[in-house]
Specification:
With 98 residues, the chain is an alpha+beta fold. Helix content is 21%, strand content 6%. It has three helices and two strands; from the N terminus they run αβαβα. A two-stranded parallel sheet has the order 1-2. Helix 2 links the parallel strand 1 and strand 2. It is globular, with a radius of gyration of 14 Å. The model has no long low-confidence stretch (mean pLDDT 88).
Length: 98
C-alpha cells in the first residue's frame, strides 16, 4: 500500500520490545517489502542482524525515537543529498548499501 502511494516503508524502531514489528510478530517477515528498517539507539546493526539472520535486505536507518528532550539526537542517520526533497531522500535511502 505504501509503495503504491510512491512512498517508502520503514518499520519503526524494530529492535524495541514494545510497539514494533518484532514485538508484535516476534520477527521481521522475510518477504516483507520494506525499504529500510529503523533501529533505535538501543542496539547495533550487527546485533539486530544476529537476532534476525534471515533478513533478505540489510538496509537500516537509525533515529533516537526520542520521548524526552535529552534523548533527541542520541541516534541518527546522516544522508548526503543533492536536494532537500522527498524524492532525493527516497533515492538516497534506496541506494544505501545492502
Amino acid at each position: 500500500f505504501v509503495h503504491g502511494l510512491g512512498s517508502i516503508f520503514i518499520p519503526a524502531h524494530a529492535d524495541r520490545p514494545r510497539y514494533s514489528i518484532t514485538s508484535q510478530l516476534g520477527f521481521v517477515p522475510p518477504d516483507l517489502n520494506y525499504d529500510a528498517i529503523e533501529l533505535s539507539r538501543h542496539t547495533t546493526e550487527e546485533k539486530f542482524i544476529s537476532a534476525n539472520p534471515f533478513l533478505p535486505k540489510k538496509r537500516f536507518v537509525r533515529s533516537s525515537d526520542a520521548h524526552f528532550i535529552d534523548q533527541i539526537g542520541s541516534a541518527l542517520t546522516t544522508f548526503e543529498m543533492i536536494n532537500l526533497s522527498f524524492r532525493d531522500l527516497k533515492r538516497t535511502i534506496l541506494e544505501l548499501d545492502v
